[in-house]
């Protein structure tokens, strides 16, 4: 029967390039590593490696097995951690994890709990949730897929962000027409901002003009600061730059535009269920932001 030790040896050899390096990494002897692979090859009925003088080459069969082996080892590590060290695994979307979650995590740790943090783009956090690799996800959108529970734990306002010398700095708020006329710098895909903006402008029969697109909010802010364009960003992501006078943020007209922040977890949590319940109690009810109006 195939066992995890054999799979761990296969992964280590592919990652480190030789039986000797893999054995050192695993804390076993090279003959033991060879024995693990020999048994695995016998069970699968195929060769897994071609030994060369400079580097051990995996066969096509070994490469086909590799992603499944990694997945099985990951599941085993998670099962072990859940039973032996049931710390909460929290995944946060990039903006939440970079700019917003720190006070919440500090309170969690001060209450005597432990946690592991993963900060990734929104679609990646959803994927980690589905794969059971994190216990709870904090995201800027949620599509209400089956098998999960969620709550809205907060919201933040989307603002038009411009460099200090931009003409919009003299405005109380930016109208939909002004927003539609100005090419916008796009940010990280999958945050839901584009969908919110399209809905907001569609109420007035308008569409957005998206210029350059960047992979993260920090890159967008630097581009705005250097005069490459304007963007639509969450208030919490630009607060420091605005306070230093490096950027200027202007509310949107017609009631503004807000983005809900969600916490999501599986309907049947594992041994961390109690911790998920405790963490949810830390999540304050969403605070309503002041509504801002100006003439259209």
Task: Give the SSE map.
Layout: H1 4-16, H2 19-26, H3 30-44, E1 49-51, E2 56-58, H4 60-84, E3 88-93, H5 94-100, H6 102-110, E4 115-120, H7 122-130, E5 136-139, E6 148-162, H8 176-181, E7 184-186, H9 193-202, E8 210-213, H10 217-225, E9 231-234, H11 235-243, E10 248-250, E11 257-266, H12 273-282
Parallel strand pairs: 3-4, 3-5, 7-8
Antiparallel strand pairs: 1-2, 5-11, 6-9, 6-10, 6-11
Helix pairs in contact: 1-2, 1-3, 1-4, 2-3
In short:
Residues 2-59 form the HTH lysR-type domain. The protein is α/β, with parallel strands linked by helices.
Task: Tell me what the structure shows.
This protein is of the alpha/beta class and 296 residues long. The model is unreliable at 287-296 (pLDDT under 50). The termini are far apart. The protein contains twelve helices and eleven strands. The radius of gyration is 25 Å and the shape is elongated. Strand 1 and strand 2 (56-58) form a beta hairpin. The chain has three domains: 4-84, Winged helix-like DNA-binding domain superfamily/Winged helix DNA-binding domain (Arc Repressor Mutant, subunit A), CATH 1.10.10.10; 88-153 and 259-282, D-Maltodextrin-Binding Protein, domain 2 (3-Layer(aba) Sandwich), CATH 3.40.190; 154-258, Periplasmic binding protein-like II (D-Maltodextrin-Binding Protein, domain 2, 3-Layer(aba) Sandwich), CATH 3.40.190. Helix 1 (4-16) packs across helix 3 (30-44) and helix 1 packs across helix 4 (60-84). Strands 3, 4, 5, 6, 9, 10 and 11 form a seven-stranded mixed beta sheet that branches. The chain has a two-stranded antiparallel ribbon with strand order 1-2. The relative contact order is 0.14. The longest helix has 25 residues, at 60-84. GO terms for molecular function: DNA-binding transcription factor activity; transcription cis-regulatory region binding.
